[in-house]
Request: fold
Amino acid sequence: MIQPVVLDLNSATHELEKMLHRLIGEHIEITFRRGPDLGGVKMDLGQVEQVLMNLCVNARDAMPQGGKLCIETANVELDQPSPANMRTCSQVRM
Reply:
């Protein structure tokens, strides 16, 4: 059952960090950039964790020889979706 609550994504990613390091493996360097004063987001914690794990597994599978993965949180205001607002494919912006 989905139970949306107001979450701090910095805290949510912090809780997942150790598990993601084990999931990704030692051949990929994973870093976290947590934005300051991050606004709350109303989401289901289980869904956030699942999305983040899926994105990390996809990134791992795309880098069989190793590489770097950066997960970043930041406050962003979007009026309309725009490719200019997206990060490079090696980063996950939440």
The first strand starts at residue 5 and ends at 7.
